Amino acid sequence: MSGRGAAPFGGAHDSEYRGDRAGRPPVGEWNAAAGTGGPELGHNLARGTFLAGAGTGGRGPLGSHEDAWAMTVYGILSDIHGNLEALSAVLAAIDERGVDRLVCLGDIVGYNANSNECVEIVRGRGIDSVAGNHDLISIGRLGFDRCANKAAFALRRTRKALSSESRAFLAALEPHRLYEGRWLAIHGGLDDVQQYVRTTRQAQENAVILQRRFPTVEACFYGHTHEPRIFEVREDEVRELPAAKVSWLQSGKLYFINSGSVDASRKREHKLAEFGVFDSNKLSVELHRVPYDHESVEEKSIRGGYRIGRVTELLYSLRRKISSMSK
Ligand SMILES: [Fe+2]
Question: Is residue 53 part of a domain?
Fold first, then answer.
């Protein structure tokens, strides 16, 4: 990781940046000024008390900052998976908070019953998106071999359900997007859209690739695992930070940031839609969760034939075993 320490976060805006950081709490800790203490964004937003002092005063609506080099507040969404209710809840919360730009880290479709509707919202609202593995599998650019049975079954259904407009939109998605020359958006790993980045070792492997291919990038936002995680890389040292509600990025370090998944259908611990907000001026990352109508999503998905039955799942497993034995 040599040389990174010489290029401070903030770059040309360093003086403004230093002033702004006075008195900040260390990375991974709650901002005492925000002080809501509540577990879900919706309530905090409703009271207007979330992250006091970090408001978007003076900022216009989404899309008003067209200058790609301007410091910006980004709403970060990932792994929507055709979950219209979760996407709507997340967008309502983000709209209430106010951001300059929305970025989707891929997997707009697959798993739930409203893939076309989710594509239409992403397209209609001009949400930047990169291609996720489900987006690529659903249009036949990738196969099912690395999918779990549940996902493969739902993706077969998704392939049949996708409109030609949705296919065309998904086919045009890029593998990555770069913002302000310093922030990168990808879906899985840098060289493998289906890689799960869950460990410090995997983050380190990706940091090496990132520095080779995108030497100016200081934070890489990724999805795919559906788990909020922040890895901090300095020289050869990587540590995972607590997935706090607010974290502050520090100069001289490289970050891999996963803000979780909009779709919570496959989560066991909760059924809340997750998203992030990244302020590239204050260098803060907020992790949020909002409730949505999970029962109705599940009901629609069962009715639409997106949920695998027990017998079919056994057949899928058997087929997988036979195919691995024949290799
Ligand atoms: Fe994915």
Answer: no
Ligand 1 center to 81 CA (angstroms): 9
**Confidence at residue 70, expressed as pLDDT on a 0 to 100 scale:** 66
- How far does the centroid of ligand 1 lie from the alpha carbon of residue 13, in Å? 35
Residue 306's domain comprises 4-27+41-46+70-325
Q: How far is the CA of 24 from the centre of ligand 1 (A)?
A: 34
Nearest Cα neighbor of 119 from 174, 164, 65 is 164
Q: Indicate the pairing of strand 128-129 with strand 101-104.
A: parallel
Ligand 1 center–CA 270 separation, angstroms: 19
Query: Rounded distance, CA 303 to CA 111, Å?
Result: 13
Q: What's the 151 CA to ligand 1 centre distance in angstroms?
A: 10
Q: Is residue 61 part of a domain?
A: no
Residues 90-143: tens digit of each pLDDT: 999 999 999 999 999 999 999 999 999 999 999 999 999 999 999 999 999 999
Whether 299 is in a domain gets the answer: yes
Give dist(CA 171, CA 138) in Å, integer. 10
For the chain, the domain total comes to 1
**Ligand 1 centroid to residue 134 C-alpha, Å:** 6
